[in-house]
Design goal:
330 residues; alpha/beta; SH3 type barrels; Aminopeptidase; five-stranded antiparallel sheet; 7 helices
């Protein structure tokens, strides 16, 4: 009986030892797992990089846009005088008229005197216009661009709808069709680089009024504006090449930068950068250009520019020009 009790005690003692050993092993395993989890969390936290703070600077500048009621004007017979606004020497209609500004033109705002705005026109004429012929607005312009995804660019495919624009010598290729195809290629290229793009029309059947084009651009708070066109001359095969146009002084640098890139890989004749009083440029406040990318009624130009390769060359040149303009070149 005593031996049996001893065997039972020894048996229970072994079981107890086994339980204690298993308990200790389990504790050690859990402890190590907890430490490993903590180490992993600490490592993960240590590799988190704080988000870079991007500093953006803006300037707010007041301007006055000349306005003329054109609702009763016949565009076929209207002259420049019908779109003009007189500029007076002093804040009085009885003072000397020293010049004119025109519907849609933006001028620097220099103050208000009674029923007049004091302005400085793009050609540096300082004087007064009546408030009823001016619209004061303050534009906020981002002066530092840190990356392309901060940009909004408005692209305008010239003509559209019933306004077919220029024609080729066979009268089967329309300017409106080429401008839309070109703009779509540019849009795809710019968006791939991160730029926000707005088009003033997206269909061949659409037509957007010139005043509406400027309105879209100004209301979008866009950074840049580009209008696409293809040229035409009175006589077939007598004119050739591409041209970049701008209107305001603050658009000149942008025009030169884009034109330089276009010239780098363009086999058409270079007609240079020129100033032009086009409505879409005149009424648009942001830096803007109008591109004439070749002559439709020049057979040699047409053979080159009516191709996907030419449209892609234009798109690549515009992207490179924008990068250079904002010093964002890779």
């Amino acid at each position: 009986m005593k031996k049996k009790r001893r065997r039972l005690k020894k048996k229970y003692r072994r079981r107890l030892q086994l339980i204690l050993i298993l308990g200790i092993v389990g504790f050690v395993v859990v402890y190590q797992l907890n430490n490993r989890s903590t180490d992993t969390q600490q490592t993960t936290m240590a590799t988190v990089v704080p988000k870079k703070i991007i500093k953006r600077t803006f300037t707010k500048t007041p301007y006055v846009q000349a306005t003329v009621d054109t609702s009763n004007l016949d565009v076929n017979t209207a002259t420049d005088a019908d779109y003009s606004v007189p500029i007076y020497e002093t804040a009085s209609t009885s003072s000397t008229v020293i010049g004119q500004t025109y519907d849609g033109v933006w001028s620097d705002y220099h103050g208000t005197e009674g029923a007049f705005y004091k302005i400085k026109t793009p050609d540096n004429l300082v004087g007064y216009i009546e408030k009823e012929h001016g619209k004061k607005a303050t534009y906020k312009v981002q002066t530092t661009i840190n990356s392309l995804d901060e940009l909004t660019v408005v692209l305008d495919p010239g003509h559209g709808g019933d306004d077919v624009g220029s024609l080729d010598n066979t009268e089967t290729i329309y300017e409106k069709t080429l401008t839309l195809a070109t703009t779509k290629t540019v849009k795809k290229t710019l968006e791939a680089a991160g730029i926000n793009v707005i088009m003033t029309r997206t269909k061949d059947s659409e037509y957007t009024r010139l005043a509406k084009v400027a309105e879209i651009t100004n209301n979008a708070n866009a950074n840049l504006f580009i209008s696409f066109h293809y040229d035409n001359y009175d006589y077939a095969n007598q004119a050739e090449g591409y041209t970049t146009y701008y209107y305001y002084d603050h658009s000149e640098a942008f025009a030169n930068t884009i034109h330089t890139q276009l010239a780098a890989n363009n086999s058409l004749s270079d007609r240079g950068v020129q100033v032009a009083n086009y409505m879409v440029l005149r009424n648009t406040f942001v830096p803007g250009i109008l591109l004439e990318l070749g002559y439709l009624n020049n057979d040699n130009d047409l053979a080159i520019m009516n191709t996907a390769n030419y449209r892609q060359m234009v798109a690549d040149a515009i992207l490179a020009g924008i990068e250079n303009y904002y010093n964002l070149s890779k």
